[in-house]
C-alpha cells in the first residue's frame, strides 16, 4: 500500500500552468495557485498546503464563507449556497469561472504541511463510556503526516464515503492520532468502531483538515464542548497549556448525563493545574445527586460571562449547540463574529436531539 500520497488533484504550482484552468489568489498574503479543472477553491488551497478557514468541506457549516474580491465562481449542479452574503462564496464548493481573488486573511504566505493519504494502523480501541470509543492510530512516520492542535482527519470507507474525526492528542510529529468516536444509532462507521474495531486493524486516512486552531491573540478564552466535541478541545488544552494559562481559559463541557463526560477526570486535572484554567461541567439531564451546573452548556457560559466583547470562543460538537452558541454569544453578548471559532460535528443526518 502506498504510504504517502498528496491529494489526487493538488493545486498546481503557479509556474506550471500546463494543466491549469484558472488562477486563484488569496489576499492579502498574495498566494497564487492554479486551480485544476473541476477543483474547488478550498481543495486547491489544501492541496498546496494552505489552510483557509473551513470545517465540514461539504457546503453545510459555512465556516469557509469568504469575500470574492474579484472574478466569479460557480457551484456544482444542484447545490444552492443558501444564506451566503452577496459578494461572498463557500470556498469548499465554489469553482472559479476565471481568475479570482479571495479574501482570506488567515492564509499565510508560506504553505504548511500538505494533506496526505495513508494507511493507519489501530494501536488501541478502548470503550471509555456507554457510547464513546477512544481510538489510537499510527500513521507511518515516512508518510509525512502531521497536524495542528484542533484539526481533524478523514477515514475513507470502501464505498467512497468518508467520515471526519478530530485529533484529541497533542501533535508530536510521530504520526500518532487519538480519536474520540461516539457511536450513533445505526451509524455505519461509529458503530463498527464501537463493536468491532481492534488493534492492528488498518484504516485508510486522509488529513489533516480544519482551521479550528488557537489564534495568537491574548484575549481570555472560552472552550466549549458537547459530547465528543471535547476531543479537539483536549488537543488544544494539551498543546497550548502555557498560552491558555497566560490568557485565562474556562472549559465548559456539556452532556446529558454524568457518563457523557467520559474524560471528566482529565478535565478536572487540567482545572487543577493553575488558577487561570477552569473546568465547568454542565449536564442537561442530571441525576438527582448531581452537585454541578445544569441546563444547556452555552447558557451556562453567558450566565458567567454576560459581556463577551473581549473574549475568544472555541466551540465544538453537536451542530445545534454550536449554532445556538454562535447566535447567542454574537447577537446578545457582544462577542465579535471573528472571535467565534468552531467545528460542528455534522453527520449525514444531523442528530435531532436537543443541544446540550
Ligand atoms: C469536522 C468534523 C469533525 C468531526 N469529529 C468527530 C469526532 O471527533 N468524534 C465523533 O464522534 N464524530 C465526529 N464527527 C462526526 C463524524 O464524522 C461522523 O459523521 C459520525 O461519527 C457518524 O458517522 P457514522 O458512519 O457512524 O454514521 P452515518 O452512517 O454517517 O449516519 C449518521 C447518523 O445519521 C443517521 N442516518 C444515516 N442515514 C440516514 C437516513 N437516510 N435517514 C435517517 N437517518 C439516517 C444514522 O442512523 C446516524 O445516526 C465530525 C464531523 C465533522 C464534520
Ligand atoms: S460550508 Fe464550506 S467548510 Fe463547511
Automatic annotation (TrEMBL):
PROSITE patterns: 2FE2S_FER_2 (PS51085), FAD_FR (PS51384)
Domain 2Fe-2S ferredoxin-type: 22-108
Alphabetical list of Gene3D superfamilies matching this protein: 3.10.20.30, Nucleotide-binding domain of ferredoxin-NADP reductase (FNR) module, Translation factors
Annotated keywords: 2Fe-2S, Iron, Iron-sulfur, Metal-binding
CDD domains: fer2, flavin_oxioreductase
Cofactor section: FAD
One function term, GO molecular function aspect: oxidoreductase activity
Pfam name, any one: Fer2
Domain FAD-binding FR-type: 115-215
TM annotation in the entry: none
Protein's name according to its UniProt entry: CDP-6-deoxy-delta-3,4-glucoseen reductase
Species, as recorded: Cupriavidus necator
Amino acid at each position: 500500500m502506498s504510504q504517502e500520497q498528496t491529494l489526487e488533484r493538488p493545486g498546481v504550482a503557479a509556474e506550471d500552468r500546463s494543466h491549469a484552468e484558472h488562477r486563484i489568489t488569496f489576499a492579502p498574503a498574495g498566494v497564487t495557485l492554479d486551480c485544476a479543472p473541476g477543483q474547488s477553491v478550498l481543495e486547491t488551497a489544501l492541496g498546496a498546503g494552505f489552510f483557509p478557514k473551513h470545517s465540514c468541506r461539504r457546503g453545510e457549516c459555512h465556516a469557509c464563507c469568504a469575500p470574492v474580491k474579484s472574478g466569479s465562481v460557480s457551484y456544482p449542479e444542484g447545490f444552492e449556497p443558501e444564506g451566503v452574503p452577496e459578494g461572498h462564496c463557500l470556498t469548499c464548493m465554489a469553482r472559479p469561472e476565471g481568475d479570482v481573488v479571495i479574501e482570506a486573511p488567515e492564509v499565510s504566505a508560506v504553505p504548511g504541511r500538505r494533506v496526505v493519504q495513508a494507511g493507519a494502523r489501530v494501536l488501541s480501541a478502548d470503550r471509555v463510556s456507554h457510547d464513546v470509543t477512544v481510538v489510537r492510530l499510527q500513521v507511518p512516520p515516512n508518510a509525512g503526516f502531521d497536524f495542528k492542535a484542533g484539526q481533524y482527519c478523514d477515514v475513507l470507507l470502501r464505498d467512497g464515503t468518508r467520515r471526519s474525526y478530530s485529533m484529541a492528542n497533542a501533535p508530536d510529529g510521530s504520526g500518532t492520532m487519538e480519536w474520540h468516536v461516539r457511536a450513533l444509532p445505526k451509524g455505519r462507521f461509529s458503530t463498527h468502531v464501537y463493536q468491532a474495531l481492534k488493534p492492528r486493524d488498518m484504516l485508510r486516512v486522509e488529513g489533516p483538515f480544519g482551521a479550528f486552531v488557537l489564534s495568537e491573540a491574548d484575549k481570555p478564552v472560552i472552550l466549549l464542548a458537547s459530547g465528543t466535541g471535547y476531543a479537539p478541545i483536549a488537543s488544544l488544552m494539551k498543546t497550548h497549556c502555557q498560552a491558555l494559562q497566560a490568557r485565562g481559559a474556562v472549559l465548559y463541557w456539556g452532556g446529558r448525563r454524568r457518563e457523557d463526560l467520559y474524560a471528566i477526570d482529565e478535565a478536572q486535572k487540567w482545572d487543577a493545574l493553575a488558577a487561570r484554567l477552569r473546568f465547568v461541567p454542565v449536564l442537561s439531564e442530571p441525576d438527582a445527586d448531581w452537585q454541578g451546573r445544569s441546563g444547556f452548556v452555552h447558557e451556562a457560559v453567558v450566565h458567567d460571562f454576560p459581556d463577551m466583547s473581549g473574549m475568544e470562543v472555541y466551540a465544538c460538537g453537536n451542530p445545534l449547540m454550536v449554532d445556538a452558541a454562535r447566535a447567542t454569544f454574537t447577537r446578545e453578548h457582544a462577542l465579535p463574529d471573528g472571535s467565534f471559532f468552531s467545528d460542528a460535528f455534522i453527520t449525514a443526518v444531523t442528530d435531532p436531539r436537543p443541544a446540550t
